[in-house]
């Protein structure tokens, strides 16, 4: 019985002092590892997105009408799918063929946006999706 009592006292006194010093250091180390993991993960994902954006060429849209005068790119303000090359009516947000977000060229500056955006992030011009629909 005396041996058990000595063992418990040694754990409480000796290990208690050691844990009192080691625990804050271990906690700080774990927090530092977690923050490093977050930063490196963000940098890796952001670099992958940049590389994918640069590597993927934008496919040409189909020429309608069969004439040379037809535009290869959609007119500004017309939603289109950059993947399939299909054009959609104003107000559409998703491609019906591949279910991706539609792109939209700003009517003012020509910056490529998502069709769901309310305004151009470059010049601030409201897009067609931001205009309220009239009851009909």
Largest sheet: 2 strands, antiparallel
Q: What structural class do you assign from the helix and strand content?
A: mainly alpha
Number of helices: 1
What is the typical, i.e. mean, pLDDT? 74
Query: What is the number of domains?
Result: 2
Percentage of β-strand residues = under 5%
The Rg value, from CA coordinates, equals 30 Å
Which term fits the overall shape? rod-shaped
Q: Extract low-pLDDT stretches.
A: 63-71
SSE string, helices as H and strands as E: HEE
Gap from first CA to last CA: 90 Å
User: Helix proportion of residues, in percent?
Assistant: 25-40%
List the helices and strands and how they pair.
Elements: H1 2-55, E1 103-105, E2 112-114
Antiparallel strand pairs: 1-2
Describe this structure in words.
- By secondary structure, the chain is mainly α.
- It has 2 domains: 1-56; 61-136, no CATH class.
- Helix content is 40%, strand content 4%.
- It is rod-shaped and about 90 Å long.
- The termini are far apart.
- The relative contact order is 0.08.
